[in-house]
Amino acid sequence: RRTPRRNAAPPPRRALLRLAQRPEGAMAMKLPLLVALAGLGAPWGAEARHLRKPQGLTMSVLPMHTYRHDCGRKHPVSLVAAKVSTRIPGAGMEPNLIVPFETVLKDSFFKVDCVADFMFTHGDKFGDAKHEYLLAGVANVSIVHYDAHVAKEDRQEMTHEVCFSFCRTVPDMNYFGIKNGRDCYCMTFYQAMAEDDESMCDEVCDGDPVIMCGGKTKSSIFGMHACGNTAEQLKTTKGKVSEMGKEMMGLKSSVSDLSAGMQEMAAEWQKMLGDAGDPGASDLMQTAKVFAGELEHAASDADKLSKTMQSLAETAKGMKDADLTDAAQMKDAEGVLEAMEEAITQGAATTEELESLLAQASPNITGQGNTSQRYYPIMYFVDKTYSAEPTTCTGTAAEKPMVGSMDQCARACDADVQECVGFSFFPGTGDDEENGLCFMMSKVETVKFWAGCSSDEATPEQVQSDGPGGPAIGPPQHVIDAHKPSTPTVDASQVKCMVKLAEFEGDSLKPNPSGKCDICLEEAAKIDRCFV
Among 19, 387, 405, 506, which lies 20 to 30 A Cα-Cα from 134? Predict the structure, then answer.
């Protein structure tokens, strides 16, 4: 060891500190610092002066702040510091007693810095750079190299996680660094010898070419947290998974019911309209069936994710008595924790998707009652004589098909101020006629008005009778009914194409052969039959 000249002038009495920014509202407790001061007297004065010798480099000491609420979170909180040597005496100084991968001591890591690390060059007591070791009597610690404690045949290609998995099991280590893309080492603190320059940490990791592992002269530095709260995190995250799953499945049930109802109504209406010779309206029903399929697909995905969540929650529950000081059990616990966190993220995305689909398929729009009174039958603007007739129309869709009452359709169309000018409504085909199918449009192009639906003429089925006068020609009505496919009972008068009065008041939508009317219909056809 070199002895400093007695007549040498003492260097300035100062410590070079890089202060970590304290997040707003965070409760922080500053830990004691390892301060390398020159000329402060025994026991560190002479040694501190000695540390200034190599190429005139000065040690930078970094303060440590502990943020308990950040435990387990991976984000670059600038918690950079050193421990007082008396707090961690001899860390790394007994390499023969180090047994890696046995006991887990840290539960997370975070990126801290990219620096030319004094510790890599002058803090290695037992490695290739032991002749450059300069911490004797100052900190009495040494860095611990991955390669020195892991057999060559057991080594993995280096990544941040590989280095962390090693260093987290080495006692008294607070940081780990990686240099040259592969050189992993653990340390109690690090010392920056030069100005930070992130661009110089440009060596890709041997095990992951998309991330950086230091550079030729600099090390990527990571801090490690020793929170000891993995068991609590498992319990808390399990609760979040269960809560997310419950919320998601509530939405899934609503979406699935809507899908089934929309699919059933669309199929029945498609058959009726197709048989009646209205391919345009039949195509509307096809779009409803397609959207119902989207709803069911989303509900199915939610159901699969729910089962995954339930399985993870059960696994986490079974780990409540696990020995998390055991490296293997800790690894399993962390795997489950990570899987649950991913499931929560997926659950949030799925929940958002279900909410969006639910809002499209059945808008819950509050507003003034009887909104539909502000909408008039489209025939009012074509030929008022047929205003009361059932009408079907086609055009440019403004929104997805929806399930609801005529008034709900009107409120949804009102809410879509920029696009919707009207809608085509079909009542329910079951017991609930009020809630039917609605197709909102930004432009109405064709309309059919069904004059035959208001006729009082008897149908062939009505003529057939097996009453007291004897049967008419042909089989009795009950035989016909037994062999006839069931037809949904619907109120044809409720089938309406409605448009905003405010949008077309004073205008005529009657087809204009000149082609000079942008709002006019392309076709308005009278149908002397009915679709039911």
Answer: 19
* Pairing mode of beta strands 436-450, 523-527: parallel
Main-chain phi, psi angles of 129, to 5 degrees: -100, 25
Which tens digit of pLDDT belongs to each residue from 339-350?
998 899 889 889
For the record, the structure tokens of 83 come out as: 């421990």
Amino acid at 20: A
Residue 106: what pLDDT? 84
429 in Cβ contact with 495 (< 8 Å): no
**Cα separation values, 80 from 136, 138, 141, 220, 229, Å:** 22, 19, 17, 13, 21
**CA–CA separation, 59 vs 133, rounded Å?**
14
User: Angle 488-492-493 (CA atoms, 0-180°, nearest 5)?
Assistant: 150
| Residue closest to 302 by CA, chosen among 356, 342, 260, 349 | 349
Angle at alpha carbon of residue 301, lines to 299 and 303, rounded to 5°:
70
Residue with tokens 């040597």: 85
- Supply the mean pLDDT for the chain: 78
- The Cα–Cα gap between 496 and 373 comes to 13
* Bridge partners, residue 445, by sequence: none
Quick count: other Cβ atoms within 10 Å of Cβ 284? 24
Query: What number of other Cβ atoms are within 10 A of residue 512's Cβ?
Result: 14
Can you tell me the distance from the alpha carbon of 310 to that of 302, in angstroms, rounded to the nearest whole number?
12
Distance of alpha carbon 79 from alpha carbon 271, whole angstroms: 69
Contact 187, 121 (CB under 8 A): no
Cβ pair 72, 107 in contact under 8 A: yes
Greater model confidence, 127 or 298:
298
517: three-class secondary structure by DSSP: coil
Banded model confidence at residue 454, pLDDT cuts 50, 70, 90: confident
Query: Do residues 105 and 91 touch, judged by C-beta distance below 8 A?
Result: no
pLDDT tens, residue by residue, 5-27: 334 333 333 332 232 333 333 33
Supply the Cα-derived Rg of the chain in whole angstroms: 39
Pairing of strands 422-426, 436-450: antiparallel
HEC letters along 39-86: CCCCCCHHHHHHHCCHHHCCCCECCCEECHHHCCCCCCCCCCCCCCCC
Length of the chain: 532
Distance CA 353, CA 242 (A): 19
pTM here?
A: 0.58
User: Of 71, 55, 61, 54, which is closest to residue 15 (Cα–Cα)?
Assistant: 61
With a CB cutoff of 8 Å and minimum separation 6, the contacts of 456 are: none
Question: How far, in Å, are 104, 109, 170, 394 from residue 149 at the CA level?
Answer: 16, 21, 10, 75
* Contact (Cβ atoms closer than 8 angstroms) between residue 178 and residue 170: no
* Residue 466 clears pLDDT 50, i.e. is over it: no
Query: How confident is residue 368, by pLDDT bands cut at 50, 70 and 90?
Result: low
CA distance 399 to 511: 25
